[in-house]
Amino acid sequence: MCRFIAYLGRPIIVDELLLKPPNSLVHQSFGAEEMSQTLNGDGFGLGWYVHSISQIPGLFRSISPAWNNHNLLYNAPLIQTDCMFAHVRAASEGAISEANSHPFHYGQFLMMHNGEIPQFHRVKRRLQSLLTDEFFLWVKGQTDSEHIFALLMQNLNEIRGESPTIETEQVRQGFQKTFDTIRELKHNAGMSDEVCTFNMMITDGYRIFGSRYSSDPDRAARSLYYASGSRYEYKNGISAMLQDDSGDHAVLIVSEKLNSRQDEWTVIPHNHFIAVESNMDIMLHPLECH
């Protein structure tokens, strides 16, 4: 059920992440290695930032499989960015359409999700009733993911108040409030036993925030890892996160490890929030699971 990759750091050519690694995201679209359902062919999306042009990200979404989209295969070697989200979809809720493809976009934010609210139709109307007109109208598709992000972004706006920026702890609070609200909606709909999973990522182009979360403390969410170093590169058939004295930094957050170099990858703990700050510091905070 979906795979994704998030990158922040030294500018990189997109194909070094999407195409070249042994277990690249395009490879995961037809041969995912860490999930029982190996196919993620119900569309894909790519979001990236070029801050010298705009704070608003570029966005390319398609319903065709990532492995067979010639526009993606042609353009990935021609795009350079210091912040990128990419996602391949295995549809669980909502039709196969561009509107239902990740990443989703709100202002300067990108958002993507691997997980689900089972039987979403039973809480959809209740969730929509919590949204202001702005965020209700922002939702263009049918997925549980987009509705979750609408609720999350509304929570973040409320927590931030009049401040032009939002602090990391406020973002963590927004994630927690969103998950707590969905738990309450499930309970009110008689769905307390249904297990929700929220591997979610958002970025403002300078920082990345996300979660690995399951509403059942005894049932771990899907795989999620991070790697950090000076730069990620593909050279002479080898992809690796490298350390050097350049002063550069790079962080990757991935559903699946991109190579077999096990020491590069750190498992994000079950029911945790992760923050990658603009200075590239990585912080992990537990999330409550009731």
Please tell me about this protein's structure.
The chain has 290 residues and is α+β, with helices and mostly antiparallel strands. Helices cover 24% and strands 29% of the residues. The protein has 7 helices and 15 strands. The protein has helices at 15-18, 25-31, 70-75, 121-129, 133-138, 144-160, 168-188; strands at 3-13, 44-48, 58-62, 80-88, 104-106, 109-116, 197-203, 208-212, 225-229, 231-235, 238-242, 250-254, 266-267, 272-276, 282-286. The strands form 3 sheets. The protein has a 7-stranded antiparallel sheet with strand order 3-2-4-1-12-9-13. Strands 5-6-7-8-14-15 form a 6-stranded antiparallel sheet, covered by helices on one side. α6 (144-160) packs across α7. It starts with a strand and ends with a strand. The model has no long low-confidence stretch (mean pLDDT 94).
Key features of this structure:
290 residues, alpha+beta, 7 helices, 24% helix, globular
Short description:
By secondary structure, this protein is an alpha+beta fold. It is 24% helix and 29% strand. Helix 6 crosses helix 7 (168-188).
Largest sheet: spatial strand order:
3-2-4-1-12-9-13
Indicate the structural class. Answer: alpha+beta
- The residue-averaged pLDDT reads 94
Counted by DSSP, the helix tally is 7
- Over all CA atoms, what is the radius of gyration? 18 Å
Largest sheet: 7 strands, antiparallel
Question: Which secondary structure elements does this structure contain, and how are they paired or packed?
Answer:
Elements: E1 3-13, H1 15-18, H2 25-31, E2 44-48, E3 58-62, H3 70-75, E4 80-88, E5 104-106, E6 109-116, H4 121-129, H5 133-138, H6 144-160, H7 168-188, E7 197-203, E8 208-212, E9 225-229, E10 231-235, E11 238-242, E12 250-254, E13 266-267, E14 272-276, E15 282-286
Antiparallel strand pairs: 1-4, 1-12, 2-3, 2-4, 5-6, 6-7, 7-8, 8-14, 9-12, 9-13, 10-11, 14-15
Helix pairs in contact: 6-7
